[in-house]
Design goal:
Blueprint: H1 11-39, H2 46-60, H3 64-80, H4 86-100, H5 107-112
Length: about 120
C-alpha cells in the first residue's frame, strides 16, 4: 500500500478524504442493501452485493484502491441500465478516492502507513 500512496494525509486533507469516503460509502451501502433485498436471492443481487462490499471497504478505508475501483464499475453499470446520472457522480467520487488514497483516518493508514520509531539513548 505504501507503494501506491506516498503519504496518508492528516488534519484538513485527511478530513476531506474521510468526507469523500463517507459521501461514497454510505449511499452505496444503503442503496445496495435495499436493492439486494428487493431482488431476492437471485443472480440479480450480485451487483448489489458488490455495491455493498465496495461501500463498506470505502467506509472503513480498508483496501481503498480495490473498493474505489469496484465502485465505479457498479455505478457505470447502473448508468448504462438507465438509472439517473447521480450514479455517474458517485463513480467519479469512487475513482478520485482510489487515486488520492484513504487518508490518515483509515484502516489502510493503520496497517500500511509509515511508522515512526523514536530511539532514545540511555545514559548511565
Amino acid at each position: 500500500m505504501q507503494r501506491l500512496y506516498t503519504t496518508f494525509p492528516n488534519e484538513w486533507p485527511g478530513a476531506g478524504l474521510l468526507l469523500l469516503r463517507l459521501a461514497e460509502g454510505v449511499p452505496s451501502v444503503v442503496e445496495g442493501c435495499t436493492n439486494a433485498w428487493r431482488s431476492g436471492a437471485t443472480l440479480a443481487a450480485i451487483p448489489h452485493a458488490v455495491d455493498v462490499v465496495s461501500g463498506l471497504l470505502l467506509l472503513a478505508g480498508f483496501w481503498t484502491p480495490i473498493g474505489g475501483v469496484l465502485q465505479p464499475l457498479v455505478e457505470f453499470a447502473n448508468v448504462l441500465a438507465g438509472a439517473g446520472y447521480e450514479h455517474l457522480v458517485r463513480a467519479l467520487i469512487g475513482l478520485s478516492v482510489a487515486m488520492l488514497g484513504p487518508g490518515a483516518w483509515s484502516v489502510d493508514a493503520r496497517l500500511f502507513g509509515r511508522k515512526r520509531i523514536d530511539v532514545t539513548v540511555l545514559k548511565d
